[in-house]
């Protein structure tokens, strides 16, 4: 599998780096110590601390590998430096209205920092792909699992530098 370059905000990259550093510098050494202590107790076949520790160490190593690959492929993009603030691009906070005039506010962020419940949608999500390049007043149709839905762009805002 070839990792494609993925855009990420500076805050998203910092959070990813902090998780990597915490796992590598704190969590992993603590689990290694638990495994060493449990192994010194003798029979490992029925030693819960040893078995759980080995399982947790594999989970940590797998997560570290994933984070390492994602950080290597990440391209940090600062939305505050967006030259064209009238259109929807990476990092934009967009106010949308549907046919019933129900408003929704979403921010386009990197896929690794997406949180739909908080209104942060991933750059490669269907809604983000439909919104890319749109300006205020444009209508965009988004293919959703429940069917297509049309949204009007009400406002486009970028963070200040």
Describe the structure.
The protein is an alpha/beta fold and 161 residues long. It has two domains: 71 residues, Helix Hairpins, CATH 1.10.287; 79 residues, Chitinase A, domain 3 (Roll), CATH 3.10.50.30. The protein contains three helices and seven strands. Strands 5-4-3-7-6 form a five-stranded mixed beta sheet. It is elongated.
At a glance:
This protein has 161 residues and is of the alpha/beta class. The chain is 39% helix and 24% strand. It contains three helices and seven strands; from the N terminus they run E-H-H-E-E-E-E-H-E-E.
Which sequence of strands runs across the widest sheet?
A: 5-4-3-7-6
CATH class of the largest domain: Alpha Beta
What Rg is obtained from the alpha carbons, in whole angstroms? 22 Å
The DSSP helix count reads 3
Kindly report the CATH topology of the largest domain. Answer: Chitinase A, domain 3
Low-confidence residue ranges? none
Mean pLDDT across residues:
90
Main sheet: strands, sense, barrel: 5 strands, mixed
Distance between the termini: 36 Å
Into how many domains do the coordinates divide?
Answer: 2
Name the CATH homologous superfamily of the largest domain.
Transcription elongation factor, GreA/GreB, C-terminal domain
Structural class: alpha/beta
């Amino acid at each position: 599998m070839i990792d494609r370059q993925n855009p990420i905000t500076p805050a998203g990259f910092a959070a990813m780096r902090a998780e990597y550093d915490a796992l590598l510098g704190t969590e992993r050494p603590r689990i290694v110590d638990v495994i060493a202590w449990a192994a010194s107790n003798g029979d490992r076949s029925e030693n819960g601390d040893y078995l759980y520790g080995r399982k947790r160490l594999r989970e940590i190593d797998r997560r570290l590998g994933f984070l390492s690959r994602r950080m290597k492929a990440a391209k940090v993009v600062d939305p505050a430096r967006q030259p064209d603030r009238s259109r929807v691009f990476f990092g934009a906070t967009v106010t949308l209205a549907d046919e019933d005039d129900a408003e929704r506010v979403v921010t386009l962020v990197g896929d690794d920092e997406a949180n739909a419940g908080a209104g942060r949608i991933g750059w490669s999500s269907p809604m983000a792909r439909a919104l890319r390049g749109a300006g205020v007043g444009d209508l965009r149709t988004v293919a959703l699992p429940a069917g297509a839905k049309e949204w009007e762009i009400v406002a486009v805002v970028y963070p200040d530098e």
